[in-house]
User: Fold these one by one.
Assistant:
Number 1:
Amino acid sequence: MESLFATERLRSLLPRIQEFVETELYPLESTENLTQNFSKIEPTLLEKRKRVKEAGLWGLHLPVADGGLDLTLCEFGQISEVLARSPFGHFVFNTQAPDIGNTELLHKYAPAHLKEKYLKPLMAGEIRSCFSMTEPEFAGSNPTRMGTLAVKEGDDYIIDGHKWFTSSADGAAFIIVMAVTNPEASKYKQASQILVPMDAPGVTLVRNIPIMGHAGDSWASHAEMRYENVRVPQTNLIGPEGAGFLLAQERLGPGRIHHCMRFIGIAERSFDLMCRYAATRELEAGTLLGDKQFIQGFIADSRAEIDAARLLVLRTARHIDEQGAAAVRDEISMIKFFTANMMLRVVDRAIQIHGALGVTSDILLSYWYTHERAARIYDGADEVHKAALARNILKSYGLDTRRK
Amino acid sequence: MESLFATERLRSLLPRIQEFVETELYPLESTENLTQNFSKIEPTLLEKRKRVKEAGLWGLHLPVADGGLDLTLCEFGQISEVLARSPFGHFVFNTQAPDIGNTELLHKYAPAHLKEKYLKPLMAGEIRSCFSMTEPEFAGSNPTRMGTLAVKEGDDYIIDGHKWFTSSADGAAFIIVMAVTNPEASKYKQASQILVPMDAPGVTLVRNIPIMGHAGDSWASHAEMRYENVRVPQTNLIGPEGAGFLLAQERLGPGRIHHCMRFIGIAERSFDLMCRYAATRELEAGTLLGDKQFIQGFIADSRAEIDAARLLVLRTARHIDEQGAAAVRDEISMIKFFTANMMLRVVDRAIQIHGALGVTSDILLSYWYTHERAARIYDGADEVHKAALARNILKSYGLDTRRK
Amino acid sequence: MESLFATERLRSLLPRIQEFVETELYPLESTENLTQNFSKIEPTLLEKRKRVKEAGLWGLHLPVADGGLDLTLCEFGQISEVLARSPFGHFVFNTQAPDIGNTELLHKYAPAHLKEKYLKPLMAGEIRSCFSMTEPEFAGSNPTRMGTLAVKEGDDYIIDGHKWFTSSADGAAFIIVMAVTNPEASKYKQASQILVPMDAPGVTLVRNIPIMGHAGDSWASHAEMRYENVRVPQTNLIGPEGAGFLLAQERLGPGRIHHCMRFIGIAERSFDLMCRYAATRELEAGTLLGDKQFIQGFIADSRAEIDAARLLVLRTARHIDEQGAAAVRDEISMIKFFTANMMLRVVDRAIQIHGALGVTSDILLSYWYTHERAARIYDGADEVHKAALARNILKSYGLDTRRK
Amino acid sequence: MESLFATERLRSLLPRIQEFVETELYPLESTENLTQNFSKIEPTLLEKRKRVKEAGLWGLHLPVADGGLDLTLCEFGQISEVLARSPFGHFVFNTQAPDIGNTELLHKYAPAHLKEKYLKPLMAGEIRSCFSMTEPEFAGSNPTRMGTLAVKEGDDYIIDGHKWFTSSADGAAFIIVMAVTNPEASKYKQASQILVPMDAPGVTLVRNIPIMGHAGDSWASHAEMRYENVRVPQTNLIGPEGAGFLLAQERLGPGRIHHCMRFIGIAERSFDLMCRYAATRELEAGTLLGDKQFIQGFIADSRAEIDAARLLVLRTARHIDEQGAAAVRDEISMIKFFTANMMLRVVDRAIQIHGALGVTSDILLSYWYTHERAARIYDGADEVHKAALARNILKSYGLDTRRK
């Protein structure tokens, strides 16, 4: 724990969570579990969720009223890191994306009838959900361009569109769909977020998109979706009409803390694996991997880079707690690209240290190498964040790079 | 084609091969073919082999006596690059590792009866083979440490041992096993290479090791093997007894040219994909990816790095042709780490340019991202090659880093 | 100011110091002042020191008893950053190395007569001092190897030796010399620190060593020194005999915070220069440097890296305040290489953005490019710190890399 | 020598030149000569020029008619590398920039009277010259923007303008000035090159610009120039009016080969210095620098990168010889940024290996660290070349990034 960001409750909570992760979840990291589809291990994980509840650790991300702890973002971030040391941690604690984001969203913006019907079971871990925004026809780096339309007809919206990277749609009970409701508005006010039940007629999960060779399934999948003449009542609108981007933006602030702390957990675990291996793998009689400076260099660089990234992210989390996400947008851009790149470097070094073993699924590293490459792409590619950060900085120097 | 290394026959041959690869093999790069096991596409590829033969392009790596062209290594390297632009190229032309290496080996060192029984059908593409050296219990960076033993009993060897990363064992007709025959000899003269039929009693393919989440099968797999009391006649010895490392070393010189030129083919194709996408993907009305300097930087750096690596590798190939591999060991070390790292950077940039599409199996890049990460590990990890290269250089400055 | 590390007094102090630096010192950055020897600008700077005193800002690094503020290391570090934005800041505030380190040292360990004679005028800025440790004959990365001897004769030490990189010896009133007094002791207990007046017979300043083409002079110089039969009373010993390394070590903890915060000040100022230029330099009609993504990338990366490094250093400073330097040696190693490399990258990017102007002495950047390259070498080269950090980490994993 | 590019005459010539450089010029690398102004060592170098003539090595860059050898660019490039291993090599062989470029220019484009008066003594090494293009008011990355005007009056041009980075103006006999003669023409056809005697009234050498702290003098200087009402006859025009950029472009092709081969010479010499030091510097009893993997990594990476860059540059040189510079503009862009960055990395590693010694002027490295940082800026900054290269590549993919 970083003492700068420690709190009383973290001091008691974190070790308990860490112990749970180490004793209950690390043993699940078998070759089999790291290679087969998620649905195979899902029953086991659902069993583990019971233990989480028994241990009184359920609902870490929730307000007190919902059985949670009202943790600050900075506190939750530190928990998130510990959960991320296992690929199953977030799911077992029901704090997995995209459900955690949808939980926050529904909490703040959903009408009561949706809360009752969807939020409650979501918080209980009885259903899953997804978020449907990205479209294959338009560059993800420019989310305001969107082809999906929601047209009013009577009391309903009729939704038509084509999406992909709708993560965890497979098996989800509902979808938050981002669709253009106000095509005549200015470009940031055209879209709305609408809750669509997965079983609504016209909703088609075209396929789980194969990523790095795996289509995956259930929670661990990324769907291509078609919405054809899908009819939902207008009361399924989340927040005000036209506020789709505003809400997405709001979601992204804390969302990036979640992601970044997850990256740090992954990096920290990879670091642990590299050190363990370096300290025990013999190269020749009496010489261990860790005796070699090349390996020492990997270790030293990784240690410094992880620590630096963690401080950067937790500072931002605290600032969001204190000032709101809008006030620290630059920091949020900064942590995204800095941390994602750091994590991928650390994972890569850990693989290299493990040699042939490193690329196998006998050890965790290749799981992250494949599943987390997208970290530099989703929620804003490196290039998008760097340009945005520089743009804001240059504005303070009097240059509006968007003046044209 | 790099004019410095062009030859008359290459000028006629390369365009034909390139056309074959583009028209016959590129269309096979469907999402399905990039994700399913190799055995599913194998029948199609075997059909393609017939077309290769019809086109008179079979046996590119073979001596004239065996229906080949006696190409120099430098010539064949350039063909290898073109074949590597498709993940199926080498297999379709029967020049895939490890068969190409075994072909060379048997040619030079196998007794006539083994040539008749194994080399002939291997050259004809009727059987496949594998090479069994690496052991999980010992660091791959130090190949002289080995637990597999071949003990003489009567006219036979009795082989016992445990290997892994025996690539393409699944479906192979025979194995070249590296085993200690002379435990009392100096460490580089203890091992021998022995041909073992796959169906010999005591040979067990324990599993195809899952790599990056995939066990794969058939040619595209990497097996863990057990040899328990496996009996083969001593006439199955390849080359002299105790010459195992010498032969392995000899194999590695040209083998690294093959690998490196394959890396360059992969990089070149990834470069082509990144440019195509950059030139056509719209970010917003009127602005394409390629208009952005970040993307331009990826393109420019990649172009320079690929060209530099190709020149380095072809220079080395020519030197091997002229002086033999032993004379240019430093160059061989150099190209291995330089080219593998270059290729992985280019593939990574190409993924980044493609955004979310880049990590999917709808496009070729993630195939290489996962299958080729091991390029920095097998046949000598980066660190091993760098240390070896520096050691030789420092020797010429009067420092023997192994003096202790 | 980083709010995590802000304190009440910093909130009032820092803006005043910053204003002083900006209004009094930035105007001194003429081409002339950046190229001529330090002695030329020294009188001006000594005038500025009077203003510092008038403004009540003198003695920031001192205890209350000596007219200072008893600032914590973490507080002083933040001041140090602001001072470092000008190449003259530290000198004008009398907090320049090596005097600040010698001040701390004499405070803690000097006998009263030395404090009276040397510490008092040092704190008053009336004299300067230097520290003589590194020897050309021995690798700086292994400070325990040392040829300088101090042999007892009567009540005196007779010192003989050859040193270099005795920074600021030119014009200094005294030298703290590290010399072997106990050659029979274990290697970390052989040396002692002894105060030697600059005018002691046998002390020769051989030359100010030309660094990057400049020998420099006065405070801004690095001397080669000869000590030949130099006689000083044994009461000139600082701390206990044989404690030379212990004291040096103690000095290095806070010393590295000083250096690292200085690096951050340099990086921050370079960042400011790059942004100013990017926001105003026209490339063609209507297009400014800052409109280019390459430049934006430099800006974004620099912003993230500076922030990360500052958090890392200030965390360490706080830990030293709380736990002492010995408890956080790993962190101290970490910040040294991480911050020095970051600073040099940022300076380099700032130069690149300025084009031809960047390499001239019409702007500050080349001053730092040349004067600060040594940041990756002195006080422990990158490689030394990385190896030390990894060694300690691996120890916690059970591997003692020094076991042999 | 790279055997791919060896020729008969190189085989005899190169060793002689290398021996001359090593025996005549290496001994000049004293601390004094590396720090004092060029004019101090100039007499010694002019003496060395006599030895060059005696050795029959004068005029390596000249046509046969002028006493040269008509070397190809590819041959001369290899000589250039060897000369560059000493900071004095090019000057001593009279092949230094900008004179070599002016020699080529006058040869091809000057009227007879200028050849007689200026080219002859230039080739004889009796006078020096300079080239005045860059202007402080306009970004060097866009050379078509220019404020210097040459207006016709009677038979003369009247030139007014402000330039800087007019290298080697100090002591030069004449200047080739780039000035706008045709302001109404399209932007690439506005400027002309005009020969201006240094002593023409109105020509002022404002100052030698301090670079990295040094103004330098004589050949080793970079002047700021004012042209005020400077009158020269129109017969001083070089080439056709309006052809200024065309000629500059033509100059840049071979010019970049010269620069890049010089970079390679610098890198190769730095490599030699790092290996020598690594092989002999003791860290502790029995352990040398070169025993450390960090150092080995520096050596191995440098070896590979230098070789790769040399092949890239010599390939381009040969292509220019065969096809002309216009045909391989992409390659010329590529080698410029690739080689300049490589050289600076190698120099930096060599400094790091030397520790404190590395930043001093007791050894050659810091000379290059400071004098060659501009390599990534002049003759096209990295960013300009990368964008240009990518632009051309993307054009072949159907995207005209300049379409707007």
Note: Chain D has three domains: 3-102, 129-238, 245-396.
Number 2:
Amino acid sequence: MKTYSIAKSRRVRSTPYTSRIEKQGVTSYTVYNHMLLPAAFGSLEDSYHHLKEYVQIWDVAGERQVEISGVDAAKLVQLMTCRDLSKSKNGRCYYCPLIDDQAGLINDPVVLRISEDRWWISIADSDVILYAKGLAIGNKFNVKITEPNVDIMAIQGPKSFKLMEDIFGEKIKQLKFFGFDYFEFGGDKHLIAQSGWSKQGGYEIYVENTSSGLKLYDYLFEKGKQYNVKPGCPNLIERIESGLLSYGNDIDNGDNPYECGFDKYVNIDSDVEFLGKEKLKKIKSEGIKRKLMGVEFDMKEISLSGSLNLMDEKGHIIGELRSACFSPFFKKVIGIAMMKKPFWEVSQTVNIKINGNNLTGKVCDLPFI
Amino acid sequence: MKTYSIAKSRRVRSTPYTSRIEKQGVTSYTVYNHMLLPAAFGSLEDSYHHLKEYVQIWDVAGERQVEISGVDAAKLVQLMTCRDLSKSKNGRCYYCPLIDDQAGLINDPVVLRISEDRWWISIADSDVILYAKGLAIGNKFNVKITEPNVDIMAIQGPKSFKLMEDIFGEKIKQLKFFGFDYFEFGGDKHLIAQSGWSKQGGYEIYVENTSSGLKLYDYLFEKGKQYNVKPGCPNLIERIESGLLSYGNDIDNGDNPYECGFDKYVNIDSDVEFLGKEKLKKIKSEGIKRKLMGVEFDMKEISLSGSLNLMDEKGHIIGELRSACFSPFFKKVIGIAMMKKPFWEVSQTVNIKINGNNLTGKVCDLPFI
């Protein structure tokens, strides 16, 4: 596939790490929350194998924070998500589908409860800050809503635990999955969570002090040499194999949480007030008409730049392929598709046309691994 | 400057015209409202000269529409902008700064009043739909808010008038600047406005019927041969020379309308209710502390990927350069900068450091031409 260059400008913001990753061999970018997000350092497959075995440092500053603080902060955060946060705890991360009053997905962030009246919403690619501002103004909530200067770097891969222990000591081993705490580096405190957009394990460092963060970035590469550290970025192959959904790719505002398999994050029987609750009750009682599923094809490559229709043997559209890649693990093409009822059953045959060729695959469960 | 490829995916949406412009030689993209926006077809300067003399067809589908309809539609649109729309007319476009309750800019769209209870907000690069939804839900407004399937193609340049007359006949000559109406092509109606993001004149076709729009796209190139038609896109050089501001580049949520020179679109003495009105009154009475101005440097080239500080002779920061290009017309580098008080006076000397070199320029008025 022909490649096109990305035009840089102030509007498509660089990150504090951009100049570093450009020296380190980034080859491709995407744009995420109006910011450059690295998409490849050479071969996706090489990077995939490396991520599964060693440790990578990722510039994921595009994962912006929406900070909501003030006496009505908890009320506003709860209003936006169908997940019951009434028993949430300080120092914990919560994966929360955000929805509108029609139960359409707005975003699927990780929400960090810093304190009862201060939250960070670590967002996927949509301007959640505008939704929050609109709701706060309309409801006359007493909150302050900002995008703080937080530029996340992720430390991902099986060797990330050793590397981080070398730098931050024993204390970091006490951090549980989706827990966060403050850790010291060179006299500065950094919020670090055990989290990240891979299933290979690791951490996300929420860098507020940029100059300290850049020193830490360099130090991670220095100390990481013994673990074969490399620069990296969210990896298309790894994230599809692991069934990590991408807002805008696999799910969007036209989908509701039940269709996306988020059932365990939909608490319609709770007492908390959130938008779209009545709509979700109706959807649940009537049953969903589409469902996000895996698909697999005996093919050696695929490159999607948009949706592809999936058809039955008569050519009727029965689903929409939204993300796909060749999986070195399964040695076939795997993808994520929104399937229409009743065609979402495992082993359902699906047909696809790529470059004039008709290919046949089948539906399977998510996640793949 | 090294170039990097753009990673395509469903999240960074293609447009109905993408496959065509890729055959026609697009070389660079940016991302605008989660959609591919062409940024160059080879040389920016060649394209600039062509635009000023002939006619170009632009894929500006990234300029998405937020449709607001229903009995409270006018109230909601007015709530978001400091421009008094109480005397607005159907069939007219209005350039409207959208602001939040702190008078920070949210977007600077062109608002189309289709009817009293149906509006299109033709947006710059931020998710205005989420702001509108939040406000509508919070205020319990009776409105419907959607992003309709509208993919704009712009016909820009001095020969656009002749070309469009050839296709749509005499009637299109009656369309005034920022007026819109429906025009027929091959049996289908298209909403066409006399507008566009250049100062070379032209039209924007709001394509709702995609298949008809694609036929029209091809027909424009066929009929346009005699006018030396070419594919193009918003041109950095032309838009800076013309002083057309770009949200995210020249202006952002940290700026208020007065700082951006939008005084004539700020109607604080009107009776209409909009957000940030009290804040704007306060800003006006106290006076602004920063102001958007032009700057010029005797240099042959510049390439910005972010802001650059402007300094006085002692090295103190007195402003921030946000966009810049080499202007073939002025034979120097021109740019748009947010200048601090009192350094915004015309002829103020500004110093800048690029690649270790110290360069001197001066402040000037906007627009340049």
Note: Chain B has a mean pLDDT of 97.
Number 3:
Amino acid sequence: MMKPINWMRVAGLALGLAAGSMAHAYDGLVEKKVFTIPSFTTVGGKTIRNVRIGYETYGTLNAAGNNAIFVAHYFSGNSHAAGKYKASDAAPGYWDSVIGAGKPFDTDRYFVVSADSLVNLSTKDPNVVTTGPATIDPDTGRPYGMRFPIVTIKDFVVTQKALADALGIKKFVAVTGASMGSLQAMEWASSYPDMVERVIPVIPGGLEANPYLIAVADEWAMPIYDDPKWNGGDYYGRDEPLHGVAEALKLVTISSRAPGWSQRTFGREFAVAGADPVASWDYKYKVSDALDKAGAARAGFADADSFLYLVRANQTFRIGQGATLEEGVARIKAKVLAIPASSDRLLFPEYTTTMLDDLKKHGVVTELFTIPGDGGHLDGVTDIAKAGDAIRAFLAK
Amino acid sequence: MMKPINWMRVAGLALGLAAGSMAHAYDGLVEKKVFTIPSFTTVGGKTIRNVRIGYETYGTLNAAGNNAIFVAHYFSGNSHAAGKYKASDAAPGYWDSVIGAGKPFDTDRYFVVSADSLVNLSTKDPNVVTTGPATIDPDTGRPYGMRFPIVTIKDFVVTQKALADALGIKKFVAVTGASMGSLQAMEWASSYPDMVERVIPVIPGGLEANPYLIAVADEWAMPIYDDPKWNGGDYYGRDEPLHGVAEALKLVTISSRAPGWSQRTFGREFAVAGADPVASWDYKYKVSDALDKAGAARAGFADADSFLYLVRANQTFRIGQGATLEEGVARIKAKVLAIPASSDRLLFPEYTTTMLDDLKKHGVVTELFTIPGDGGHLDGVTDIAKAGDAIRAFLAK
């Protein structure tokens, strides 16, 4: 196993993220495993051969196969949800504060599984295994580029179902995930209602992408389309559109944060002491400088085309992926605990309110716990421990 | 007077804005006038010769010169706050619903003045008169480009003070403005405390730019910097960076709107019926298509460098433009009525809360009226009539 890239750490170095929520490591060492689907047919009817996805597991599946929990990851994340690959890793997986022995997702009781999504962003992270536009198309021997089929959140879930079957999982105690992970969690409950007892969508995106989110995601994608090096998606083996990807990831970071965090972390400090942006175009504020650097640092591990596929998957999300929202919602049998973040400026708490209203109309039993804080959307990743008791109680019901 | 460009109409055509708030025209016809400052020294100590700014007035100044109201405009706006240039104009000025005979800013009683800002965005609108990077530098005979001095919100206000003096105004009953106009209004109260009785900041940006706003404004500017045609700001007389400007204005529009408006106006409709974005990269959602078109339509009237100067002016805003916030706030003598919009996703209502807390600490008498709605930031422009009674009552105090 190669040296892992810890995204929270990359972002944290530049952005001064508190490391408090990462203090407790998963007890055992974890490893990335690989699952292969020889032939996968997308919801849209396209066939992809040799789909490979990485996954991690924490804990042990019981004989009945009914003590599993699935954790779907967020937009720029991957399946490293908990633990360390090596004891010397700087930080454990992103939700380690709630996954482990004695923790809310208790690995002494549950078998926790997470998987890298299709079209995962971080194709250059050696610990990510995914299939997407950067993958070699077996028919041509070259990367797919934008010829890769458009995939949906439901496609992500179908691959996860194949993995669950292969692992012998019969029932999920819960399916959970933050942000884009919350969409997958809700889709699980609709696609496989008899297999999912509970859903815990964190910083939820609702039951379909709000048109405002569609517009914001367009913003994110724009610098990639506008980078001449993007070249219609055919840049593999050449000078890649790193600037566009860096700007795109900067936009993601801004969307994922909030005024309180910005004020607390940077205030109105200048990037260089004494260099007031009023005086020269060469001067900037510390917040601008830090976000530039964080975007650039992450761009080196990311794939431009995969970013565009992820944007499209989020924009096209509607639970069930059918002609109406209702038919997707009506299939749900699971109980739902929604966990928005109070200061979320991307997937606003009002998206959760709308979702819960729609679920209740269809007779779904719902609960709500709001993560307090001023960190914005990312509080659902960094501060998930604040919801630990709510998760514990919900799993006991 | 040439045919006026009504920005609300340009945006409205593409974005389906309700025209309700524009139904009542200012009673008389108005005209754009021009005020000239032969030599203007910026707060930063740079001298600009022959500063020309356009302005409009509604109503009549009384003999004592103490019945004036100043209206500062928003980022992409100009001094056409009320009335029509010609009876056949499609729509009146943007705040016509509250400026006019018998309206809250009652032109039977008050002399209402508005002025085009320095570095105004819409240099190609024949009804905008401004001085900025697109202006010919008398020293070189060529447009300044990025050699124009960096200017601040306080500089805007200093030009407005010179105009007020020239008009014979001794005292303002109120200084008001939406968004960037709110910054100017607050600056007026700090720079000229004995001249300002009341301030009415609408969709307020607070007393200094929050670092989160600094980051969001960086986002807006990015597509211009990244457009190869921008060429370091020297594009005058050549092929201009229209794509960058269009993308920048699209970002401004998204920031100025909100989920409720997006849902109500577009829902998840496709740009072309039956053309589902799941099926092809050629297909998009109606919201994306409308925002693309609105950005492109506005880009033809806007100047790229001026956009960058406006971004910088907003980012560097601190009331008083001094070393500390306190010294700027401490000078204020005016009463303040703050009017945020409940669904504002750009200048969040929490910026108003922070501002009012800071003002109260310094003994300023404050009031708050929140515009209800789901339209986002732009509700402060389109739905100002909802605050009409609050404004009327405040002016009577």
Note: The longest helix of chain A spans residues 153-167.
